[in-house]
Amino acid sequence: MKLPRARTAKRRRLMILLLAGLGLGTAAALTLTAFDDHLVFFHTPSDIAAHKVPVDRQMRIGGLVEEGSVERVSGSATIRFRVTDLEHAIPVTYEGVLPDLFREGQGVVANGKLGADGTFRANEVLAKHDENYMPAEVAEALKRAGRWQEGAAKPK
Amino acid sequence: MIAEIGHYALILALCVALAQSVLPLVGAARGDGALMAFAKPAALAQFALVALAFGCLVHSFVVSDFTVRNVVMNSHSAKPLLYKFSGTWGNHEGSMVLWSLILGLFGALVAGFGRNLPPGLKARTLAVQGMIGVAFLAFIVFTSNPFERVFPPPTDGRDLNPLLQDPGLAFHPPFLYFGYVGFSIVFAFAMAALIEGRVDAAWARWVRPWTLAAWSALTLGIALGSWWAYYELGWGGWWYWDPVENASFMPWLVGTALLHSAIVAEKRDALKTWTILLAILAFALSLVGTFLVRSGVLTSVHAFAVDPARGIFILAILVTAIGGSLAMYAWRAPMLKGGGLFQPVSREGALVLNNVILATAAATVFIGTLYPLFLEAIGGAKVSVGPPFFDSTFVPLMIPLLLAVSAGPMLGWKRADLAGALQRLRAAMFLSILAIAAAYWFADRRSVYAALGMGLAAWLIFGALVEWAERVRLFRAPLASVWSRAANLPRASWGMTIAHAGLGLVVMGIAGVTAWQTEVIRLVRPGDAFDVAGYKFVFKGVTRDDGPNYHFARGTFEVYRNEKLYAVMTPERRYFPVAGMSTTETSIRTNLLADIYATIGDPESATQSGNMPAFLAPVTPQTAWTVRIYHNPLVPWIWLGACTMVLGGLVSLTDRRHRVGAPARARPADAVASPAE
Asked: Are residues B115 and B195 in the same domain?
C-alpha cells in the first residue's frame, strides 16, 4: 500500500514540476523576444545631434521645452516644439492634445520615432506631474549634458 | 494640541506593537496562556491608538490647521470638504497612517472575532501582525511624522495635487490598502503556521475568508484606479501598463492564485507549502508595490517624495520582511507533510494550472516593471518598457488560462474525465463559436482578434452559467426542485459563478475597446461639424469661468445621432492657481454598450504666458481649438465586470462554511464595503 502512494506522489510532483517548467519556459521565451522588439531606449538631444541614435525605432527622449519654440501648425492639430538639454536641441512634432503640465522651459519626456530628416515624431508626450518635480529622464539628460545644477531644479 | 495628541498616540501605538510582537511569541513558545492572551488586548489597543491618531490628522485637515506642515503642503482653505477629507491620505505621511490604520483594523478583527482559533496560532498570528505594525509605525514616527508643526504658520496651504481632487481617486487608496494590508493577515497566518510547523485543512479554512476579503478590496481598488485614469487623464485608455498600475496588479495576480490554491489546501489537504509560499509572495509584492509607489523611484503622480532616508527605511523593511519570511519558509516548509493525491486531469490539476499561469504572468509583469530599474542601478542604458512588451508577454499567457477557467469547475476532485467535462460544456462551446461568428460578420470584419476575444468572453460567461445550470439541474429536473437546489447551493459556488462571469465581462470589454476604438483629433472652429463613429458632433465654442478653487475653459458639443440630439457634451480644462497645475475634465456619455468621450485641448496659435496655461490665453470667438473625441465600444463592461467579480468575492465571503473558523466572518466584508469611516 505504501509503495504506490509514494510513487503517485512522486509522479504528481513531477507533473507539477513539468507544468511549472513549461510555464516558466514559455514566459522566458515570450519575455526575451518581447525585450528584443519592445525595449524602449532613452536618448538625450545631444545623443541625437551626435547621430548616435538609430532612425525609425521607437525610443524615448527627454529634456526641457525650449523657450519660444512651441508653435501650432495652422489648420491642423499638429504642434511643433524643440526639446533641449541646453547643449543641443532637436525638433519634435506631435499631433494631439498636449498634457496639462506641458510648459515652455519645463521638463518633458516624449515617446516616438526619429525621422530621417532629424525630426522626432512623438506619439506620446509626458510632462512632469507637479511643479516642484523634475522627471528623472530630464534630470538625466541635463546631467549628461553637464548642465545639471544641484538644487536648482528642486527635485522635491 | 490635537496634533500633539495624534503624534503621542502614534508613539504609544508603536510601543504597544513592539510588545505585541514579542510577548505572545514567547508565550506561545513556553505554553504560557497569560502571555498568549496578551495579544488580544494589545491588538485592540494598537488599533484604537492608530485610529485616534488618524482621527486627529483628519481633524487637522478638515479644520485646515495650517500650523501642521502636512496640511500646509497638501491642503487649502478653499478646497471642497470631501477633498480636505481625502487629502488626509493624498500625501505620503497620511497614506502611511492609513496603511497602519487598516493594518491595526485587521489585527483587531482577528483578535476580536477569532474566538475559535487555537490560542497558539492566534497568538503567533497577532505577533507577526504586530511586527508589521512596528515596521510601519516606526517608519512613520522616525521618518514621516504627519503632525510636524510649522512656525510661523502660513496664511493658507499649497493645495492638494489637483489630479487627486476627484471622487474616484478619493477612495482608490483606501480600497487598494485594504487589499494590500488584507494580505498581511494571510501572511501573518502563514508565518504562524510555519512557526508551528503545521498546516491543515482548518488552517486553510481560516485563511480563505481573509484572502477573499483582501482580493475583493484589491480588485475594487484597481478598478477604481483604472476608471479614474480613463476619465481624468483624457487619453481615452483604461490601462497603461504604468509601473504604478503594475505595482498593484502583481499582488492581485498572486492573490488570485492564492485564492484558488487555498481551496485545494482546504478541500484536499494538498498544495499546502505552495499556498504558504503564495501567501508570502502576495504580501511581499504588496510591500514592493508600496515601495515602488511611495519611494519616488518611479516617475508618477503617486510618488510623493524622494527622500533617501525614507527609501532606505522602506528597503530595510522589504529586505527584512521578504528575506526573513522566505528564509523561514526554506527552513520550515520541508517539515510540512504533503496531503491528498490527485491525477493531472482533476479539479486540483486545473487549479495547479491556474496557479502556474498566474504566477508566471506575475513574473513577466515583475520583470517588465523592474528590469528598467535594475538596468539603471547596475549602470546600464536607460530604458523603458511599454505596453507592447506586456501585450506580447502577458496577453498570450492569459489565453490558456481563460480557456481553462470554464473547464476547471466541471472536473471532479482527484481524477476527472476531460472529454466528459467538455461534452457537458458543449452548449457553452456552441455559443462561443456563435459569438465569434457574430462578432466577425456583424460588427467588424477587419479584426479577427476582436472576434476571438468575444468568443473567449462568451466561453467564460456561458461556461460559468452551464456549470451553475448543472449544479441546479436546470432543464432536467422539475422547476420546484431546481429552485430548491439553487436556494441550497453554497454561497461559495454562487460566488465562483458570479466572479467567473464577471471575468468574462471584463474580457469582452477589453476586446471590444481594443479592437473597435475610434479616435479623432482635429482642429475645429465654433460651428464646425464632424463625424465620429456614426455620431455627428457640432462644436459650439468655448466659455471661460471660475470654479471654487480653479479657473476653467469649457467647450460645448452638440452630438446628434440619426439627426436627433443625443447629448450635449461639455469637456473642461481647469487651472488651479494655488498648485499652479491644470487638469483635464473629460465629458463622457455612455449607453452601457459604448462611451463617447470628448476632451478639449488648446486654442490655435496660443501659447502659455507666464504660469497661465494656453487654454486661458486671450482668443477671439472664431479661434479654432484642438479637440480629441473617442468612441469606445464596450468599455463600461470592463468596470461592470470588475464590480461583478467583487460581488462574487463578497457573496462567497458570506458562505456559512467560511464562518466555521471564526464566527463573524462577514465582518471583513462589511469593513470592505465602507472603509471611508
From this structure: no
